TrEMBL record:
InterPro entries: Yip1_dom (IPR006977). The lineage of its organism: Bacteria, Pseudomonadati, Pseudomonadota, Alphaproteobacteria, Caulobacterales. This is YIP1 family protein. Residues 19-189 form the Yip1 domain. It comes from the Bacteria. It comes from Caulobacter flavus.
Length: 397
């Protein structure tokens, strides 16, 4: 039985934390052969450690506020701070599960062995440094130190992947690099659904009692929200295909920027195009291509861009699978994220400055984005709609 399995007589959470941080290599060897379950790792380890930055951040924001002490400090309302802490906690739990899907999907591309439980071990234990370093959030000005210390988790990932996922040591760097890239995009996308979880927390009483259910049966439930593991796994498989090409020394193909450039209209919503450019680039096979044009009318100007996200597009599929929804308002405007028909959309608008942005992700691969000044958000929406989404969907297949 695992040392973190509920009810284990040999339970040694503090010892496990010390060993994984101070002597990771021998500890990963022990973790590799240690019996465990996803539920046990969640309840006996992840849920406990993930609470450190959540609680520390909550206390720090209420006592010290955010900003520069003595100059400008903003203290959130107690209700807002509590909801924010609970949301961050719930998302950290979900992120561990999603990262494990990515690690498992990438394993064959680096001559590793697919094993969902072993992948979850890597995702769970490699997060130890970041969670422990979260204690610095008690005093917000020191939070950056916690963030830097949390980077030690990259080393934990590097030492754990070859051992636990049975990948050759010579491929550990590549395996780690691709996993880190995917993780960064994952956390950005997960951040987009924060508002959706906030809404669920407010309506359903919060995520304090959230639990992961059905991880082995095709779905995962957090705070009353159920997510389709099959859809998330399909997104992870896109990463697996991309990783296979990268490992073989091939660039993941992206659409020619000239093709994207041809999709930008000469005029839209009464705005005339004044410039047009296109480019592509990337590193380590993780490429992207983009075409953008500037549009002007009566002193107002916005940019319309079409981007092929390439290998990173799989992460937008995860956001779509999670039915991302959120809304926030200020005195002069709003920001909103929504998912309809499997299509992720974000928009923001400031009524005072008459500026904002509108983005639609097509085929879980291409983003169409309009940003800048206009008479209303409708001008930006019409600009995005003027790009042939049907053509992009066909290119995404």
């Amino acid at each position: 039985m695992s040392v973190v399995e509920p009810g284990a007589v040999s339970s040694d959470l503090v010892g496990r934390v010390k060993r994984i941080l101070l002597t990771p290599s021998p500890e990963w060897e022990r973790i590799d052969t240690e019996p465990a379950t996803v539920k046990g790792l969640y309840v006996g380890y992840v849920c406990i450690l993930a609470a450190i930055p959540a609680v520390a951040g909550l206390v720090g924001s209420l006592v010290f506020g955010h900003g520069i002490p003595g100059l400008a400090t903003i203290r959130p309302s107690p209700v807002g701070a509590i909801i924010g802490a609970v949301v961050g906690y719930g998302l950290s739990l979900l992120s561990v599960f999603l990262l494990s899907l990515i690690i498992d999907a990438l394993a064959p591309s680096f001559d590793g062995q697919k094993n969902s439980l072993q992948a979850f071990k890597v995702a769970a234990y490699s997060g130890t440094a970041g969670w422990v370093a979260g204690i610095f959030s008690l005093f917000p000005p020191l939070a950056i130190i916690g963030g830097l210390l949390g980077l030690y988790g990259l080393y934990l990932l590097y030492t754990g992947l070859p051992r636990v996922m049975k990948a050759p040591k010579e491929k550990a760097i590549g395996y780690t690099a691709v996993t880190v890239i995917c993780a960064i995009v994952l956390y950005v996308v997960v951040g987009m659904i924060t508002g959706a979880v906030v809404g669920a927390a407010a309506i359903g009483g919060g995520l304090a009692a959230s639990k992961v259910v059905g991880a082995d049966t095709g779905s995962v439930t957090l705070g009353g929200q159920t997510y389709d593991v099959g859809q998330m796994d399909a997104a992870a498989k896109k990463m697996e295909a991309a990783a296979a090409s990268i490992e073989a020394g091939k660039d993941v193909p992206v659409t020619s920027p000239d093709v994207l450039k041809g999709l930008l209209p000469a005029a839209t919503s009464g705005f005339n195009r004044t410039s047009l450019e296109a480019s592509s680039g990337g590193a380590g096979g993780m490429g992207m291509s983009v075409a953008r044009g500037d549009y002007e009318r009566d002193g107002k100007r916005f940019t319309l861009a079409v981007t092929d996200l390439g290998a990173l597009g799989g992460m937008t599929a995860m956001a779509s699978a999670m039915n991302a929804q959120s809304t926030s308002e200020t005195d002069t405007g709003y920001e909103k994220t929504s998912t309809a028909g499997g299509q992720l959309t974000t928009e923001k608008w400031d009524r005072e400055t008459k500026s904002g942005g509108y983005t639609v992700v097509v085929g879980n691969r291409f983003s169409i984005e309009a940003n800048g000044d206009a008479d209303s958000i409708d001008d930006l929406k019409r600009a995005v709609a003027s790009v042939d989404a049907g053509k992009l969907k066909s290119l995404a297949r």
